[in-house]
Amino acid sequence: MFRSWRIGRIFGVPTELHWSFLLVPAAILGYSYEAGFGLRWSQVQWWSGITLLLFLFVLVHELGHALTARSRGVKAEKIILFPLGGGALIPEEPQRIRDEVLIYFAGPLANILLALLALPLLLLQPGGAYLIQFYLNPFGNLIVVPSPLEQILGITLAVNAVLALGNLLPAYPLDGGRILRAVLKRPIGERAATVITTLLGIVIGGGLVALSVSLGDPVLGLSSLFIISFSALELNRGWQRRRLARTVMKEVLRSPLSDRIYATDRVARARAVFAKTDAKVLPVYSNWNELSGFVEREVLLREAHRDQRVQPFYEAEFIAARPTDSLLLLTERIVEANVYGAAIYEGGTVVGFVFTEDVIQHLDRSPRRFYKRFTSPT
Ligand SMILES: [Zn+2]
To answer: How remote is the CA of residue 122 from the centroid of ligand 1, in Å?
Structure first.
């Protein structure tokens, strides 16, 4: 149930609806229910119409991102639509900063264009200037009774103005925050740019929470909490990378054991070697004493029989690195290649091993969160 449904390709971009859309009918009925009167059908129609319009505005925003990405040669994997927003999944960071700025600006720009389309049409209506004041300042004391067409135009103007300005706030993960990060990358470096924009996300998000409380607006409140949590996650990921960048490889390096596991060994003997160490993964050697790969303790315990050979249970792929390599870059290579770890060579001989397990332990992270942070596109 907790998934997204493909609704088709729009301009060639796969588009999905998030499962939380199932909550929309319930929300519409809830908003249309009035104590003492029961369900008001005019209200059901009203809120359904608003939902449909909002859905279209968000879709146009995300298409702005996705189509601009594609036009700059950057892959846009898909668009996911939520009841109150959406996201264009762009797995790889654009190479050029100019492209990154254009891609993130294109979403709000699409909303600005929609608002600019509605503005003259609304102005052409009788009493158009009053209508514009009414829709752009919902807290004013104007009283107007708009026609259905004027309502659609007015909502198009107001909602798109809010979507454009709101998304351009310089707070990660909003478009404005991403644009600011892209612009700051070159002068102050990617890490500092991330720290600044995520801190702005937490501060601005906090301000928006306070605003939502004073306005009594649960939708704004929820969106602000999303901004804060996304920023906090990204900030934390930044600290994790910083710690790895500053860690000397020696701190997580495991020296080779004198007792070696050979591919031709029986599983029982390999288990005995594991029993003497706390390692979860150990190297496997060929009969010519060359490193062949890595084997996991759990695999030998659960999947192998004691009389079998180690041969079918070890993974032959690993990464070769030098003791002077950066632990951050090495960890990224290990995660990218999806292997147990790296063999560290110095002058042609193996001086030790770096295993993901040990890096995780060093960072004090649970493996699930670790992999998510290191692999999720941001
Ligand atoms: Zn956007």
So the answer is: 26
- The alpha carbon of 71 and the centre of ligand 1 are apart by a number of angstroms equal to 17
**Is pLDDT at 64 greater than 80 in this prediction?**
yes
What mean pLDDT comes out for the span 366-370? 63
For position 266, which CATH number holds? 3.10.580.10
The last residue of one of the domains, among 242, 277, 303, is 242
Question: Is there a single domain that holds both residue 178 and residue 297?
Answer: no
**Sequence letter at residue 135:** Y
Burial class from Cβ neighbours inside 10 Å (0-12, 13-18, 19+) for residue 189 reads exposed
Summarised one tens digit per residue, pLDDT across range 269-299 is 999 999 988 888 999 999 898 899 999 999 9
- Specify the pairing of strand 78-82 against strand 13-18: parallel
CA of 60 to the centre of ligand 1 (A): 10
What is the total count of domains within the chain?
Answer: 3
- Kindly state the average pLDDT of the residues 161-167: 92
pLDDT digits (tens, 9 = 90+) for 65-74: 999 999 988 8
Instruction: Kindly state whether residues 19 and 162 are assigned to the same domain.
Output: yes
Task: Categorize the per-residue pLDDT at 371 as very low, low, confident or very high, splitting at 50, 70 and 90.
Answer: low
Residue 29 alpha carbon to ligand 1 centre in Å: 29
Q: Give me the chain's average pLDDT, please.
A: 86
365 and 264 housed in the same domain? yes
Q: Are residues 200 and 235 in the same domain?
A: yes
d(CA 319, CA 50): 54
pLDDT score, position 141: 66
Residue 172 in contact with residue 200, Cβ under 8 Å?
A: yes
* Residues 191 and 338 grouped into a single domain: no
Q: What is the rounded CA–CA span in Å between residue 190 and residue 234? A: 12
Residue that is written with structure tokens 């001989």 in the block = 349
Are 199 and 297 within one domain? no
Other beta carbons within 10 angstroms of residue 211's beta carbon come to 13
